């Protein structure tokens, strides 16, 4: 019997296929999804929308999920190959709950499901996912639920053009100077969406690895790992491109490199986009997680907005976006959230903002982002530990009460001083502690980093 505790995560379903889950389990999960919605007072009889990425297992798993939902009387709209933000678009535009089959940047043998309510509202452990797991476990033990007297229909619908058109209404690029753009799709869904979104814009597109291939033959589709943007950096330098963009496997995250091939911090992108959104919506709130740079709340305040700090994770960000009516949200992991996009994350819309900002002035990208990249940072450093809580306690004890420092535990442990801060937080899925350090200069980053790691790895 499948062990759902191993594959139902904090925000999604994710595991190895077929070792941890398969089409039989996907069918039950589809039935559990619509049952959870009904129990919550939402009527999924009006329909749900399902999409999938390019992984070899995705079409079969998504079809089985659709069959499970339809067996209980729910109509299903299948949009086929899509990026995760294209699925969110469909959920928002069609006002339907949705399910996206993808394992994002995980290796080829993995697959997963990201689920949302109508209007792309997130589903996590505390907002439906725990109930989906409980129902599925019961049916695994006792047998599948009785089918409805009248099963739902399953229809196909194309949404790529409508998705691209919607994004193009949110950012005007028609008047920008011509730009040469290298895009590394990593054999993921960016290869499906970028050509349509960029069509007709004053951009010369240089595509890398646009062939859809869920075995990821060139590199992992995780642009936050420096090893996976080496080819993009080289192509930008070789061709004299203005900018390089890298998308992850399901193309909901976008990573940027400048004209020198140097990575641009996602915090700098968050600050840049925040300033642009606040220019359109003065006085709005902007959400940022607690690992983004000090630059982000500084720029938000300078732009007349109000920064709101929150935990790491898309379900938290989306909930805070809705609660505050925030115009924009950003994470250190290159997830970017927009009120104009149902509070959902879309790397593509963030990329269009960066292109518009770059093309709307004469300076190179490296010069443009200087104003948004003000501090030195360590990047995320992972340490494998046997006792996460014990190591966190040791670090807390070392810094608590130290003159000039404050400690908070919104998400892991954050220690702040006048010239630096660090956050140390446990992974939800692995025996790891993740450390991020920022300071006013690189020497201080190195000093704080080494001091904390000595305690973590003792």
Automatic annotation (TrEMBL):
Magnesium as UniProt keyword: yes
Annotated keywords: Isomerase, Magnesium, Metal-binding, Phosphoprotein
SUPFAM superfamilies to which the protein is assigned, alphabetical: Phosphoglucomutase, C-terminal domain, Phosphoglucomutase, first 3 domains
Keyword Phosphoprotein: yes
Highest taxon of the lineage: Bacteria
GO biological process terms on file: carbohydrate metabolic process
Cofactor(s) listed in the protein's UniProt record: Mg(2+)
InterPro entries in the cross-refs: A-D-PHexomutase_a/b/a-I (IPR005844), A-D-PHexomutase_a/b/a-I/II/III (IPR016055), A-D-PHexomutase_a/b/a-II (IPR005845), A-D-PHexomutase_a/b/a-III (IPR005846), A-D-PHexomutase_C (IPR005843), A-D-PHexomutase_C_sf (IPR036900), Alpha-D-phosphohexomutase_SF (IPR005841)
Ranges of residues in domain Alpha-D-phosphohexomutase C-terminal: 380-454
Ranges where the Alpha-D-phosphohexomutase alpha/beta/alpha domain occurs: 6-137, 162-261, 269-375
GO molecular function: intramolecular phosphotransferase activity; metal ion binding
Alphabetized Gene3D superfamilies for the sequence: Alpha-D-Glucose-1,6-Bisphosphate, subunit A, domain 3, Alpha-D-phosphohexomutase, C-terminal domain
Family: Belongs to the phosphohexose mutase family.
Protein name per Swiss-Prot or TrEMBL: Phosphomannomutase
Organism: Streptomyces aidingensis
Lineage, broadest ranks: Bacteria, Bacillati, Actinomycetota, Actinomycetes, Kitasatosporales
């Amino acid at each position: 019997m499948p062990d759902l505790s191993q594959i139902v995560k904090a925000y999604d379903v994710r595991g190895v296929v077929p070792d941890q889950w398969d089409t039989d389990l996907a069918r039950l999960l589809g039935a559990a999804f619509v049952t959870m919605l009904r129990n919550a007072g939402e009527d999924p009889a009006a329909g749900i929308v399902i999409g999938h990425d390019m992984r070899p297992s995705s079409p079969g798993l998504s079809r089985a999920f659709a069959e499970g939902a339809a067996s209980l009387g729910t109509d299903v709209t299948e949009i086929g190959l899509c990026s995760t933000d294209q699925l969110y678009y469909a959920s928002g535009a069609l006002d339907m709950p949705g399910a996206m089959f993808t394992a994002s940047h995980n290796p080829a043998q993995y697959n997963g499901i990201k689920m949302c309510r109508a209007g792309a509202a997130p589903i996590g452990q505390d907002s439906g996912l725990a109930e989906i797991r409980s129902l599925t476990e019961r049916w695994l033990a006792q047998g599948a639920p009785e089918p409805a007297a009248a099963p739902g229909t399953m229809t196909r619908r194309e949404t790529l053009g409508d998705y691209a058109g919607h994004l193009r209404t949110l950012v005007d690029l028609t008047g920008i100077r011509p730009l040469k753009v290298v895009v590394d799709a990593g054999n993921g869904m960016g290869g499906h969406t970028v050509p349509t979104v960029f069509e007709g814009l004053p951009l010369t597109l240089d595509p890398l690895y646009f062939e859809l291939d869920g075995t990821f033959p060139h590199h992992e589709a995780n642009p936050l790992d420096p090893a996976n943007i080496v080819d993009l950096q080289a192509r930008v330098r070789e061709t004299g491109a203005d900018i390089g963009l890298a998308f992850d496997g399901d193309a909901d995250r976008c990573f940027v490199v400048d004209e020198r091939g140097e990575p641009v911090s996602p915090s700098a992108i968050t600050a840049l986009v925040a300033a642009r959104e606040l220019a359109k919506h003065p006085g709005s709130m902007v959400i940022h997680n607690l690992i983004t740079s000090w630059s982000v709340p500084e720029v938000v305040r300078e732009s007349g907005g109000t920064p709101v700090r929150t935990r790491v994770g898309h379900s938290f960000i989306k909930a805070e976006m809705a609660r505050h009516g925030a115009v924009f949200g950003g994470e250190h992991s290159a997830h970017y959230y927009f009120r104009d996009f149902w509070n959902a994350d879309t790397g593509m819309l963030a990329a269009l903002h960066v292109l518009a900002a770059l093309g709307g002035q004469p300076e190179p990208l490296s010069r443009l982002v200087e104003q948004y990249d003000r501090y030195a940072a360590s990047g995320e450093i992972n340490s494998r530990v046997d006792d996460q809580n014990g190591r966190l306690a040791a670090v807390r004890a070392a810094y608590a009460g130290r003159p000039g420092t404050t400690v908070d535990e919104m998400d892991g442990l954050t220690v702040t001083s006048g010239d630096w801060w660090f956050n140390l937080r446990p992974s939800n899925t692995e025996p790891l502690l993740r450390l991020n350090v920022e300071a006013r200069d690189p020497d201080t980053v190195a000093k704080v980093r080494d001091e904390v790691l000595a305690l973590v790895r003792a």
